[in-house]
Fold PIHD3 protein.
Amino acid sequence: FQVKSENKKTIWNTEEVPEGSEFDDTWDPREKPEYEIFFKQHVGTEDVFFGMTGKDPSTACCEDIVIKIKLPETKYSDITLDIQDKVLDLRTPKKKLLLHLPYPVNSKEGRARFLSDEETLEVTLRVSRKFDFIN
């Protein structure tokens, strides 16, 4: 198997490089913060009682991804957040998180809020899915 390239001196194609790798800096001394990923779906009575829509509790039926990131001793103004379709890049003076997301998201429709009493950044992203028999 050989990949053909336009330029004979290149050693890989741009399609082979994963999205978000331009943000990855292995020499950055900042530590990775603790985080949790949750999946959220919207259900109604037709789902709970009748099972009419075919939704189940799996991540394949979820509409949103919620990421909670612990940022102790951080102010809201110190946070830099960049969201691509498959990558979340968070940077503060003391912490750095490059997270490859489990599903592609709509990067234009996300929302984030900083809970200062819990020192947590909560990022909610809408999953971008092709329509199938479930969604």
Summary: The mean pLDDT is 82. The first helix runs from residue 45 to 48.
